[in-house]
Specification:
Layout: H1 12-16, H2 23-42, E1 46-47, E2 50-51, E3 54-55, E4 59-60, H3 63-68, H4 72-82, E5 88-89, H5 90-97, H6 101-114, E6 117-122, E7 125-130, H7 137-148, H8 150-158, E8 168-172, E9 186-191, H9 196-210, E10 214-219, H10 221-229, H11 233-240, E11 244-247
Helix pairs in contact: 4-5, 4-6, 4-7, 5-6, 7-8, 8-9
Length: about 260
């Protein structure tokens, strides 16, 4: 079906004259604008890959930078979220996250504008605290944990084990509900044949790295399915609450109330 073109405005031919762009000129300008947009939007953190169909979209090497626009903002939010009752000065945050003064200042400005961080003047300086009442705080904290928090450290620790030792693994409890602090334990549940001793040894490095106690438990799939089918109260409660997946997907877990 042909689409009728809108008539040119009066005098448009006279204004354009001989300077009208040819298709090839327009293509070159579009290409330049596209290259400029990619360069500005993602800096140098993009890696292009190609296949037989041509060039694929560039892939950011840093997911955190691509999502938040900088590496400083997610680190700052993670530091504040880890101690929700503490008020930080800008200098304290700058030292804790290892960012420059200007980068920290810009990240704080953005965080305050979004409503994720509360700013209060005390004497001659401002102090900052995470706004736990923000409607998006739980989702942001969970995302930060997946990108660079406890979940990522635990995921790395479990990477050395595969099926049948570890089929599925997840964090449950306060960390999965985005209600944990630096003093909170991390509860890890594993479906697989790994022994608790071997699992504890596998997670020891993550425990040292995070400076937090990791409580891990493991059940073989058959035993777990039987316990769920029998109505095990603890397992049914865990199954009904939020989970932060480390290995596999939630769909890979045995369903509650059915034996496999």
């Amino acid at each position: 079906m042909e689409v009728a073109q809108a008539p040119a405005s009066p005098g448009s031919d006279r204004r354009s004259g001989s300077s009208a762009s040819s298709p090839s000129q327009r293509d070159r300008r579009t290409a330049r604008r596209s290259r400029h947009f990619i360069r500005v939007g993602f800096s140098d953190s993009l890696v292009g890959k190609s296949d037989s169909c041509g060039t694929l979209p560039a892939v950011p090497t840093s997911v955190a930078q691509a999502l938040f626009g900088s590496e400083t903002l997610p680190r700052l939010l993670a530091a504040l979220a880890a101690e929700p009752d503490r008020r930080f000065t800008a200098g304290e945050l700058e030292a804790q996250i290892g960012a420059s003064h200007d980068s920290t200042f810009r990240a704080l400005q953005r965080a305050v504008v979004t409503g994720l961080v509360d700013r209060e003047q005390v004497g001659r300086q401002f102090v900052y605290r995470i706004q736990v009442d923000s409607p998006i705080f739980p989702e942001i904290k969970t995302l930060l944990s997946k990108l660079a928090g406890p979940a990522e450290a635990l995921r790395r620790a479990l990477a050395g084990l595969g099926p049948p030792e570890v089929e599925v693994a997840f964090v449950f409890g306060s960390a999965a509900r985005a209600q944990d602090t630096l003093a909170s334990d991390l509860d890890v549940f594993v479906v697989g044949d790994v022994s608790r001793f071997a699992l504890s040894r596998q997670l020891a490095e993550a425990e040292r790295e995070l400076g937090r106690e990791v409580n891990a438990m493991a059940y073989p799939r058959q035993e777990l399915a039987a316990r769920l089918a029998a109505g095990d109260g603890f397992l049914l409660e865990v199954w009904a609450k939020p989970k932060l997946m480390l290995v596999g997907r939630e769909e890979d877990l045995p369903a509650a109330g059915t034996a496999e």
